From TrEMBL:
The keyword Transmembrane applies. Keywords: Membrane, Transmembrane, Transmembrane helix. The chain crosses the membrane at residues 12-34, 40-59. Residues 12-64 form the YiaAB two helix domain. It comes from Pseudahrensia aquimaris. InterPro entries: YiaA-like (IPR038972), YiaAB (IPR008024). Pfam families: YiaAB (PF05360). This is YiaA/YiaB family inner membrane protein.
Length: 93
């Protein structure tokens, strides 16, 4: 990995963490200052936590599916290459 890509990734990662922290603080402040009963605030807080969890889980699942497809494609490519090399070798004989 070159240095420019590393710097860009570090900046993006910092921005992402800062944006998440800000959003979480805004959600917590909004729920805390909401003029509603304690049970309603609890419901909103649980819904917010569940939303964050499912977003992370969905992102991980999608990434894992893409990595699995890429691995499967590499395996199929290697098998095809081996088959072609075997065919090429048998044609020479």
């Amino acid at each position: 990995m070159n240095n420019a890509t590393s710097i860009t990734n570090n900046i993006w990662q910092t921005f992402t963490f800062a944006a998440f922290g800000l959003a979480a603080c805004m959600m917590a402040g909004g729920i805390f200052f909401l003029e509603a009963s304690f049970s309603a605030k609890g419901f909103y807080a649980m819904a917010a936590i569940m939303l964050v969890y499912t977003s992370v889980a969905m992102t991980k699942t999608l990434r894992d599916n893409e990595e699995t497809k890429a691995l499967h494609n590499r395996i199929e490519s290697a098998r095809t290459e081996k088959l072609l090399m075997d065919t090429k070798d048998s044609d020479l004989i």
